[in-house]
Amino acid sequence: MLEMMLTLCIISVLMLLSVVNMPSDKGRNIDHEIETIGYFLQSAQTGAMGSGIQQIVEMDRLEQRLLIRGRNGRVIRTHSLDICKLKSGGLERIIFKSNGDTDKFGTISFDCLGRPVSFVFQIQRGRFRIEG
Predict the structure, then answer these.
(1) For the chain, how long is the longest CA-to-CA vector?
(2) Which of 17, 64, 67, 123 is 20 to 30 A from 103 (CA-CA)?
(3) Structural domain boundaries of the chain?
(4) Which CATH superfamily, name and number, covers 26-131?
């Protein structure tokens, strides 16, 4: 009985030491957030192409969220930012037309736990690339 208690105590101490030294998941969480933002923007583009009606993506810096609005201004979908935060400057909104193009080119900048990330938009075919 005493040997079993001693063994459990040693195993508990070893587990405690290994859990404390586990690597953080911060990098993977940042990548997941960036990927989610990309999917959100693509959903606005495909929604505009599928419905034949333009969709507006707004960057709400006060509430730290992204909004997709229809032509009438009604909010279709929102994405609250968790790890990445919108930086000042850059695009305030971008419109995806029914053919998939955007109304302007420019950059949406984020600060993801100290790591700068930018979504750079082109006008033709609504393409964007991620830098950072």
Answers:
(1) 75
(2) 64
(3) 26-131
(4) minor pseudopilin epsh domain (3.55.40.10)
